[in-house]
């Protein structure tokens, strides 16, 4: 790994080491130049500047080392610069950097498509279209649903995040500022509440909403019982787009019956189901795809983020009988770039060999520790997740569940000051989405740091 210093490469230090005030002088210089030339639309929670990384440890230009519990927002699934991924990239770079998969053939593309067809839920033939980002994978899924059904309406969920391109933005309902100033939405989308049992908009419980019964939860049944009778004629609905575990909305895990009920409703009305597995897929939850936790089989799956360990790549994977559009109907110049595909093939090998099991094991370890912290700190209102996709929701009061927004933001900064990189999601949730290679001592450091920061914040609030 030529881009990483010998000392760093040896990984003699597995935990953070802070050598300067934060940000250090070299980092501050880069931040100042960034603020002068880079779009201000980017969101930065705190002033971390990346210089190099190995595994779950990242280093800034001033030599400060941090534990990355974000993995580039669930992207660097095998850790930073995993040797086998870097080697696969190097070998491909020596062969060729690019050929447009929309116009020419090369052997690695069907290799990856075959693997994804095997891994994505569903015991039926599948086909794959490659793009560069999660938003592109969603756009591809939307276009395919329109093409296959000849319908034009869509249903999505409050709190969802599906991307910022105009089509995907029509589905996104995470934060108002993501839509503000961009005019009317491009697509005809109706949003309904997601199955967030911690904050049920109907003031129901799993026992009173039907989630524990064969009929399924109210928040899913409302699609058929209300929407189809009032605003969305079922015969005009092309697809229901859903995150099996909601990401930006707060790392929300629905009850087991939620996705099953959506599948049943869709089947009754000839509607397709698109699963957005961009953040929750590729081993993040301890299974290759989060849908597997619920025995849920979508018609179309959008996958990206962790698929290539940090290189831009996405895929829209669909039933083969749906993806029968003609040449020229949909394509991408860079989608399926050979270097990114090489990284993806190496990434999948690593996930299947050991990282899937490690994600499940370390996820259980973190969840146990976080639930112990919840008993100690009343600021924690809820701990939820699967595998290494964990949300810690902070509340000002456990009875009212009033979101502790400023405290969540303070947690991000206090963790940064101690060498721990975490970011938020939802209104007041801290998310943990570390590399799938995370180790027990790194989980212990995370728990200790959380404990220290929560104690400090509680004292200030007293």
Topology diagram in text:
Layout: H1 6-9, H2 25-37, E1 52-54, E2 57-59, E3 65-68, H3 71-74, H4 83-95, H5 108-119, E4 126-131, H6 134-149, E5 153-158, H7 166-171, E6 188-193, H8 218-230, E7 237-242, H9 256-268, E8 272-276, E9 300-303, E10 314-319, H10 338-376, E11 380-386, E12 389-397, E13 402-403, H11 405-417, E14 420-421, E15 423-425, E16 429-432, H12 440-461
Parallel strand pairs: 3-14, 5-6, 5-7, 7-8, 8-9
Antiparallel strand pairs: 1-2, 2-3, 4-10, 9-10, 11-12, 12-13, 12-16, 15-16
General description of the model:
By secondary structure, the chain is α/β, with parallel strands linked by helices. The chain has two domains: 1-68, Aspartate Aminotransferase, domain 1, CATH 3.90.1150.10; 85-351, Type I PLP-dependent aspartate aminotransferase-like (Major domain) (Aspartate Aminotransferase, domain 2), CATH 3.40.640. It is 36% helix and 16% strand. It is globular and about 60 Å long.
Features:
single chain, 462 residues, alpha/beta, Aspartate Aminotransferase, domain 1, Aspartate Aminotransferase, domain 2, 2 domains, 7-stranded mixed beta sheet, 5-stranded antiparallel beta sheet, 12 helices, disordered N terminus
Describe this structure in a few short sentences.
The chain has 462 residues and is an alpha/beta fold. The protein is 36% helix and 16% strand.
Strand content: 15-25%
- Main sheet record: 7 strands, mixed
N-to-C terminal Cα separation, in Å? Answer: 49 Å
Do you know the CATH topology of the largest domain?
A: Aspartate Aminotransferase, domain 2
Report the C-alpha radius of gyration, rounded: 22 Å
CATH architecture of the largest domain: 3-Layer(aba) Sandwich
Q: Which class do the helix and strand fractions yield? A: alpha/beta
Task: Tell me the number of helical segments per DSSP (H or I, 4 or more residues long).
Answer: 12
Kindly report the name of the CATH homologous superfamily of the largest domain: Type I PLP-dependent aspartate aminotransferase-like (Major domain)
């Amino acid at each position: 790994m030529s881009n990483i210093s010998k000392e760093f490469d040896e990984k003699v230090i597995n935990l953070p080491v802070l050598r300067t005030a934060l940000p250090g002088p070299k980092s501050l210089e880069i931040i100042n130049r960034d603020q002068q030339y880079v779009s201000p639309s980017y969101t930065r929670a705190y002033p971390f500047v990346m210089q190099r990384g190995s595994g779950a440890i990242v280093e800034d230009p001033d030599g400060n080392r941090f534990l990355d519990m974000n993995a580039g927002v669930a992207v660097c699934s095998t850790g930073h610069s995993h040797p086998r991924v870097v080697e696969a990239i190097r070998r491909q770079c020596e062969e060729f950097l690019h050929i447009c998969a929309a116009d020419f053939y090369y052997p690695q593309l069907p290799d990856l498509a075959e693997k994804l067809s095997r891994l994505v839920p569903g015991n039926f033939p599948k086909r794959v279209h490659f793009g560069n980002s999660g938003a592109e994978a969603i756009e591809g899924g939307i276009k395919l649903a329109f093409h296959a059904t000849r319908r034009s309406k869509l249903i999505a969920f409050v709190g969802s995040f599906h991307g910022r391109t105009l089509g995907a933005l029509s589905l996104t309902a995470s934060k108002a500022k993501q839509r503000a100033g961009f005019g009317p939405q491009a697509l005809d989308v109706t949003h309904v509440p997601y199955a967030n049992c911690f904050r049920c908009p109907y003031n129901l419980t799993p026992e009173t909403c039907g989630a524990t019964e064969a009929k399924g939860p109210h928040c899913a049944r409302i699609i058929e019982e209300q929407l189809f009778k009032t605003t969305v004629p079922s015969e005009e609905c092309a697809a229901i787009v859903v995150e099996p575990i909601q990401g930006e909305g707060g790392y929300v895990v629905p009850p087991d019956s939620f996705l099953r009920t959506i599948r049943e409703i869709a089947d009754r009305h000839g509607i397709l189901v698109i699963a957005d597995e961009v953040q929750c897929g590729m081993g993040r939850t301890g299974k290759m795809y989060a849908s597997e936790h619920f025995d849920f089989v979508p018609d179309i799956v959008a996958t990206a983020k962790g698929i290539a360990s940090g290189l831009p790549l996405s895929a829209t994977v669909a039933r083969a009988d749906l993806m029968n559009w003609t040449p020229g109907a949909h394509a991408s110049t860079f989608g399926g770039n050979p270097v990114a595909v090489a990284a993806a093939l190496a990434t999948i090998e690593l996930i299947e060999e050991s990282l899937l099991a490690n994600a499940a094991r370390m996820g259980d370890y973190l969840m146990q520790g976080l639930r112990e912290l919840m008993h100690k700190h009343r600021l924690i209102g809820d701990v939820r997740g699967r595998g290494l996709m964990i949300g810690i929701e902070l509340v000002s009061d456990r009875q009212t569940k009033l979101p502790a927004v400023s405290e969540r933001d303070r947690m991000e900064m206090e963790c940064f000051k101690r060498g721990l990189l975490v970011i938020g999601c939802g209104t007041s949730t801290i998310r943990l989405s570390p590399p799938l290679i995370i180790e027990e001592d790194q989980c212990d450091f995370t728990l200790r740091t959380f404990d220290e920061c929560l104690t400090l914040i509680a004292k200030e609030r007293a």
